[in-house]
Specification:
heterodimer, A: mainly beta, Methylamine Dehydrogenase, Chain H, 4-stranded antiparallel β-sheet, 2 helices, B: 87 residues, alpha+beta, 5-stranded mixed β-sheet, 25% strand
């Protein structure tokens, strides 16, 4: 994107009933909607290929049919289904229930993408999403069954693999998050994996300081400092600075009445000390709504030592929506633009790094993912 | 050739056709033939372990069939039904 003189932001919105593309002008204030695309599909994730700018990949299924990946090579004008979507080898017991997460591969490997599924597994394509193969180093790892735990430990609507991260300095250095299971790391292109969960709380299981079994909700790597990662976990907000293998809970600095539970985690494209979260109510019954019905983002500008509430423009009360883990994102603009989609079908944006929020779209189906792309 | 009636979510694969003809002596063979002509259709109703997906039912002459090895005669009628949960 840095090569573009004045890129226009493309907002890619996945919903429970199809996808919508919002074409922004250079001011990011006027938007033209293009959609719905594949109306009726549950769109778990929709991503633009940052390496070519015209390919879109969509992880989807309908309520009745099996999971698949759709591909567009013309920014959504036409869509074609993968010839061989992610699937386990024949003859085993497992089958892919959802393709939940998509991550473009390293800049030096055009056509390479990763997909995270339910049940926990990682798949890779090297032909731009036409054919997918399992990462055997994870999917057939001898410890995998222990890492993911018994089915009773999994959420009822599937244990999802998410937050697949490729280190921008090394295409074979990978991270992934499993809910539940924890954070895992590979330094050999996925041939082997090890847990990276020291310092993370897992107060919902009986073991003290377990090696795995944690519940990361969303993990991001700092573009400006790839040794730093942030994580919104089921049990708090964390940061890690590699080569340390221990996470630090930075959510303790959040206001006590708000807490540090949530799903999305958004990082500043250039400043490694700036990150955003969108807290949710994680009390007794885990309602996962904005605490008190008063939505707000929280930003840290000092790596998690302090947090500031950002609610200007949002409803002041009686708003009980949720923002899912793929549904809050940033653009690379100056200042950074922020975009989030709600379970109530609204898209909110901020052009001043969260200081003020305005409604960009409403009356959509429940939103599952929001990502930014660009067009020349 | 056996007549196969399809649920509307599969019309995208058959250019909008609700009813197609397929060759095969079993449901498995019928699905292979359908997937050859309408690529991707099979995987959306049968998983990679050859199990019928939980929200899909196969009817053979109006009778629910759970074994894809069931024999099919050209005079038979196959109907695929897709169940959709609410909301």
């Amino acid at each position: 994107m840095g090569r573009m003189k004045s890129p226009k932001i493309l907002l890619l919105v996945g919903t429970r009933k199809g996808a919508f593309l919002y074409h922004g002008d250079v001011s990011r204030k006027r938007w033209r909607v293009d959609g719905p695309h594949l109306l009726g599909q549950i769109v778990y994730h929709l991503i633009q290929d940052p390496r070519d700018g015209h390919t879109l990949l969509m992880a989807a299924k309908t309520g009745h049919l099996g999971p698949t990946v759709f591909r567009s090579s013309d920014l959504g004008r036409t869509w074609k289904e993968a010839a061989h979507p992610p699937q386990f080898p024949k003859g085993g017991a497992e089958s892919v229930k959802n393709v939940f997460w998509l991550t473009p591969g390293h800049a030096s490997r055009p056509g390479e993408w990763y997909a995270g599924t339910a049940p926990h597994a990682i798949f890779r394509t090297t032909d731009g999403g036409v054919t997918w193969e399992g990462i055997r180093g994870f999917n057939e790892h001898p410890q995998r069954a222990k890492w993911k735990g018994p089915p009773e430990n999994s959420p009822p609507d599937d244990p999802n693999t998410h937050s697949i991260i490729v280190d921008p300095r090394d295409p074979d250095h990978l991270y992934a998050g499993f809910s539940s299971g924890g954070v895992f790391e590979s330094t050999d292109g996925g041939a082997d994996w090890r847990p990276l969960n020291k310092g993370l709380a897992a107060d919902f299981i009986p073991q003290k300081d377990p090696e795995y079994g944690h519940d990361p909700h969303c993990m991001r790597i700092c573009p400006g400092r790839p040794d730093r990662l942030y994580q919104q976990n089921h049990c708090g907000i964390y940061r890690i600075d590699r080569p340390s293998d221990r996470w630090t809970r930075i959510g303790r600095a959040m206001p006590k009445e708000i807490g540090d539970i949530g799903f999305p985690m958004v990082l500043h494209p250039r400043d490694p000390d700036t990150a955003w979260v969108f807290p949710m109510d994680g009390s007794e019954a885990w309602p996962r709504v904005s605490p008190g019905g008063r939505p707000a983002a929280y930003v840290t500008r000092d790596g998690g030592k302090s947090w500031k509430r950002q609610d200007r423009g949002f409803p002041r009360k009686d708003a009980w929506w949720t923002v899912k883990r793929q549904a809050f994102t940033a653009d690379p603009g100056r200042p950074v633009g922020l975009y989030l989609g709600t379970t109530s079908g609204a898209v909110w944006s901020s052009l001043d790094e969260g200081a003020r929020w305005r409604l960009l779209a409403e009356h959509l189906p429940s939103i599952t993912s929001v990502e930014t792309g660009w067009r020349g | 050739m056996t007549v196969v009636r399809l649920p509307s979510p599969l019309y995208a694969y058959t250019n909008g056709k609700a009813e197609v003809m397929a060759a095969g002596e079993t449901l498995t063979e019928i699905l292979v033939d359908l997937d050859r002509r309408f690529p991707g259709l099979r995987f959306r109703v049968v998983d990679e372990q050859d199990r019928i997906r939980p929200t899909i039912l196969f009817h053979l002459n109006g009778r629910v069939v759970r074994d894809l090895g069931e024999r099919v005669d050209p005079k038979d009628e196959v109907q695929i039904v897709a169940a959709l949960s609410g909301g």
